UniProtKB/TrEMBL annotation:
It is an enzyme of class 2 (transferase). Residues 175-319 form the MoaB/Mog domain. Pathway: Cofactor biosynthesis; molybdopterin biosynthesis. Its EC number is 2.10.1.1. This is Molybdopterin molybdenumtransferase.
């Protein structure tokens, strides 16, 4: 069978180079004259020479008296010199030096006598405390060369040199065209139905582009009809934009027209880059009849679009205007998990970074190209090179920072089981005078224990029930972290129960109902504390897992279980009350359990951990936990010891 291979992927730098070789930037980007005081961030089109000197006169550099240095040479500490009025002139900083004077003596070193004379105890040397003509700028000298991006200091120098306006390159202008029958204009504040999405990529683009000094705008979404798309692209090409970006429709779907539209107005130079996300990105150049403009086809998935903007469009736009493009700062990080990667593709791995135990640890976030929240949650991006099959746990690599490096010192890393109280905590910590950001990764209680063991987090949320002892967490800590000194602090006691449809149409009230023929269950993954809890209740009730319909169907979070019930994919599942509440479902209580924070003792004095411990003891925070419903706070903030019964 012949495969429909539509991409011919090239490395990203090659993709950029292909365009640079064919696009005539000097024809495309003109020059314009702008007032100097509004020229910050602009790129000079030609050299700028100083018109005025600065200072334009010999200027007193200190408050004091101006003198003729030669007249002061005889002054001694033990034989002060009296200067007659006329031999000196009082001056202030910035005053022009009076004729015949060539030095300034600071007022602190002068005694003004009642008879109008002035005494000095040391001679002045010529040009002492004087800023001479042209000290800073000499008229006619080269002030700024061409192709220089003007900064704030440059504006000061230009104005001082009497340059009131100057010739700069036009700002690069870009127009983004969102496409797709399913994308809804956010201006309409839509409520999407199945199959529809809110258009957001254009605004990610506009925000990024503005930060890069690009004048960016977008047009309303265009439906997937070739005539409509051609019309929108032709119109954008006829506008003053230098770059036209077509959003989505870059891959092989039945309605993916981007490539053919680009071909109808110009030449496609690149379709496919050796990068993930971002693979189906397109680059092209419009025909002369369409202004020889840069054409970009950005994939529809949000993160893929970001890669296309940042790695292809940004360097090309910088080159068009003649700017140097800065790189993000990087730090060395240690990866907390193994990450396999596709050979032949450079992967942009979004990571959550924190400073734990004297090193930067990076926990990989989800890799889906459709998840824009992986960008909002990430503190950095690691590039897994094209020729790599992945990175091992514990391996060191560099991460490009999406936040200031100082922010990492204020990031608390939690790994483990997720609970809504962690979200509350995350918000409350950001409300502190010195805000702390939580970077949390949800890998279940056992995953949290392992993260503590590996030194890759400050704390782990855990709720592991041990049927043998009836205790929480301690038996597991003893088994899996036998040599580790840790502290266990309670965050809340929470209610687990059966999440059922609103109104509980099947009358499900307890585990006994799970054995019914007409009840379909949805389970949690092996290793989840909730799964262990279910198994124990089933064995207590004498119910074999094999008699529970759906026991083998697994989800990874409480919310995912609730969504199964909401959509009718299952009749019930075990989870926390807050998840049921969030989706308007009913809840049949089954058990109360302890949700604790496991903290390595080495991290206990860390100010971030201390901030958490102080915060959770406050009345205000407890009130907020209880308001969630399904939580008790009698133990909140207390250090747990083995064998403690539930209150
Ligand atoms: N058979 C194949 N299918 C796909 C391949 C492939 O190689 N073979 N590549 C996948 C990859 S990789 C990517 S990336 C995407 C690129 O998709 P398109 O550029 O064709 O975009 P759409 O399919 O139209 O949309 C994808 C997704 O993004 C949403 N979208 C679109 N525009 C916007 C916007 N302005 N704001 C927010 N979200 C947007 C759209 O609704 C879709 O959900 O293709 C894979 N498929
Ligand atoms: O390139 Mo796609 O962006 O890998 O998901």
């Amino acid at each position: 069978m012949k495969r429909n291979i539509y991409l011919d992927t090239v490395p990203m730098d090659e993709a950029v180079a292909k365009v640079r070789a064919l696009l005539d930037r000097h024809a495309l980007i003109g020059t314009e004259t702008v007032p100097t005081h509004e020229a910050t961030g602009r790129v000079t089109a030609e050299a700028v020479y100083a018109r005025l000197s600065s200072p334009t006169y010999h200027s007193a550099a200190m408050d004091g008296i101006a003198v003729c240095a030669e007249r002061t040479f005889s002054a001694r500490e033990d034989e002060p010199l009296r200067l007659a009025p006329g031999e000196f002139v009082p001056v202030n900083t910035g005053n022009a030096l009076p004729k015949g004077m060539d030095a300034v003596i600071m007022i602190e070193n002068v005694v003004m006598n009642a008879d109008g004379t002035a005494s000095i105890e040391a001679p002045a040397f010529p040009w002492q405390h004087v800023r001479r003509i042209g000290e800073d700028i000499v008229a006619t000298e080269l002030l700024i060369p061409q192709n220089h991006e003007l900064n704030a200091y440059d504006i000061g120098a230009l104005l001082s040199a009497g340059i009131w306006e100057l010739s700069v390159r036009e700002r690069v202008r870009a127009c983004f065209i969102p496409t797709g029958d399913e994308v809804l204009d956010f201006h309409d504040r839509p409520e999407p139905r199945p199959g529809q999405v809110v258009e957001s990529n254009s605004q990610v683009f506009v925000s990024l582009a503005r930060a890069w000094g690009i004048d960016a705008r977008r047009v309303p979404p265009v439906p997937d009809r070739p005539e409509a798309l051609t019309a929108a692209v032709t119109q954008a090409l006829a506008s003053d934009a230098h770059i036209v970006v077509i959003g989505a429709g870059s891959s092989a779907g039945a309605k993916d027209y981007t490539r053919s539209i680009m071909e109808s107005v110009g030449t496609v130079l690149v379709h496919g880059i050796k990068a993930m996300p971002g693979k189906p990105s397109l680059l092209g150049v419009a025909d002369a009849a369409h202004g020889g403009k840069l054409l970009v086809g950005a994939p529809g998935y949000p993160v893929s679009a970001v890669v296309c903007f940042e790695e292809l469009l940004a360097p090309l736009a910088a080159w068009l205007e003649g700017r140097v493009r800065g790189r993000r700062r990087t730090v060395e990080v240690e990866l907390t998990r193994r990450v396999p990667s596709k050979l032949g593709m450079e992967e942009f791995l979004r990571v959550s970074i924190g400073h734990v135990g004297g090193k930067h640890v990076a926990t990989p976030l989800s890799r889906g190209a459709g998840m824009i929240t992986t960008m909002t949650r990430a503190q950095g991006i690691c590039r897994i090179p094209v020729n790599s099959e992945g990175v091992d746990q514990g391996e060191h690599l560099r991460a490009e920072l999406l936040v200031p490096e100082e922010a990492l010192e204020r990031t608390l890393v939690t790994v483990g089981s997720h609970d809504n109280t962690i979200d509350l905590l995350a918000d409350a910590l950001m409300g502190l005078e010195n805000p702390i950001r939580i970077a949390s990764t949800h890998v279940g209680s056992m995953g949290g224990l392992m993260a503590v063991k590996n030194g890759s987090c400050h704390m782990a949320g855990t709720h592991l029930f041990d049927p043998e002892t009836g205790d929480y967490n301690f038996p597991f800590i003893k088994k899996y972290l036998p040599d580790m000194d840790t502290v266990l602090v309670n965050l809340a006691v929470r209610h687990q129960g059966l999440i059922v449809a609103a109104g509980n149409p099947k009358g499900i009230t307890g585990v006994a109902d799970l054995a019914r023929d007409d009840v379909r269950f949805i389970n949690r993954q092996r290793g989840a504390g909730t799964r262990i809890l279910l198994d124990w209740h089933l064995s207590q009730a004498g119910i074999a897992p094999s008699s529970v319909a759906g026991y083998d169907k697994e989800e990874f979070t409480h919310m995912a279980v609730a969504v199964n019930v909401l959509t009718g994919a299952a009749d019930c599942g075990l989870g926390i009350m807050a998840a049921a509440r969030a989706l308007g479902l009913d809840f049949a209580p089954l058990a109360r359990e302890r949700y604790d924070l496991l903290i390595p003792r080495a991290c206990l004095d860390d100010p971030r951990v201390q901030a958490v411990l102080a915060l959770i003891k406050t009345e205000d925070f407890r009130t907020r936990i209880e308001a969630l419903g399904g939580y008790e706070t009698a133990l909140t903030g207390q250090i747990m010891t083995p064998g403690l019964p539930l209150p």
